[in-house]
Amino acid sequence: MQVLVLTISGDDQPGVTAGMSNALEDASVTVKQLEQIVLQGHLVLGIVLAGDDEALHGALGIANDYANSRQMAISHRYILNSDLEHYRERLVVTVLGSPLTPKSIGAITSEIAVAGGNIDRIRQVAMYPVTAVEFEVGGVEKRTLRDRLTAIARTNEIDIAVQEAGLDRRGIHLVVMDVDSTFIQEEVIELLAAHAGVETEVAEITHRAMNGELDFEQSLRARVAMLAGLNEEVLNTVQSQITLTPGAATLARTLHKIGFQVALVSGGFLEVVGPLAHKLGVVNVRANQLEIKDGKLTGNLSGPIIDRAAKAQALKEFAEQYDIPLSRTIAIGDGANDLDMLNAAALGIAFNAKPYVRDAAYASVNVPYLDTVLYVMGIPREHIERSEAFDSSPHRRPPV
């Protein structure tokens, strides 16, 4: 059985959809799909009609007459009703650019077509501080599309995210974030090392560990050993030296407002991460714990090690705690220590990540604003701004 696909376009004017619907009232057809968008005063209306051949032919004549009366363009085509399944949304591809150029859009959309996908819908998510556009795509497998688009994104210096569409994109989510070089701009252990006079040595080990060249636990214990003898008061000093990543406070505040659960999971230290989380209203925290005796760091750790595997386990435990399915979890991180967590989540976002971490993730964001990950979640910029504008809480912090 065939269906009729109509596309009506022209200057936006009142009553176009109502008028077309009323005109088709006696055509003995039913509406299978209905879409409309207005872009800078130009309206595009799409209607898919079902009926027998005679009814569809009559509906086409009526639609042509109505469009002409409104001085609007109209095009049509017939497809099989079964083919509609091919065009149903399955994936959401979010593209972020600063700037986003026609060349980049052309490369992305061409690659989707080459992969066998069809773009059902395009939606603007943000215009600044980056341009973010969402494509709803059907007809192609997720991993295939991600692998193809990763190379395109790198060549065109844009960011992409490929995720499944559907109900799991809605509802309450758990968002788990790494801390050092993700939620904050510094590596806490390097700040501590500076006070111990071993910053260069520790930074070198940190760099190699984050690139996956060294075992995390061994490298962590080696670095912490260099901190032996530091007075515990230095932890307060380091807390004052921390700089939030731009957009981090806005991200946390927005996630809390929409009812999402937020967690900070760090290979750093609870003594620093804990107070930071408390200031931002984050109650879910996992981090390593320094051993302190007689007011001094001993150079050892106490309690379980929060390494690559433990981060992924923390995500699963927090999800279970809040009865949130893994299909509604999001993880954000930058280093090798975050890879298991990124893979365990339904959506793993590599934020300003090391190259091989970025290539392994289904989403990457390489702009300096952490709150841009909200666009990957499908939350438009205007919703964030409206939330900020109407927040009259006396404890409200300005956007970061």
Question: Can you describe this structure?
Answer:
This protein is α/β, with parallel strands linked by helices and 400 residues long. The protein has three domains: 2-85, Alpha-Beta Plaits, CATH 3.30.70.260; 88-165, Alpha-Beta Plaits; 175-186 and 229-389, Rossmann fold (3-Layer(aba) Sandwich), CATH 3.40.50. It has helices at residues 16-23, 53-69, 84-87, 102-114, 142-156, 188-196, 199-210, 216-225, 234-241, 248-257, 270-279, 308-321, 339-344, 355-360, 373-376, 381-389; strands spanning 2-11, 30-39, 42-50, 73-80, 91-97, 118-126, 131-138, 159-164, 174-177, 261-269, 284-293, 296-302, 329-333, 347-351, 363-365. Strand 10 (261-269), helix 11 (270-279) and strand 11 (284-293) form a beta-alpha-beta unit. The radius of gyration is 26 Å and the shape is elongated. Residues 392-400 have low confidence and may be disordered.
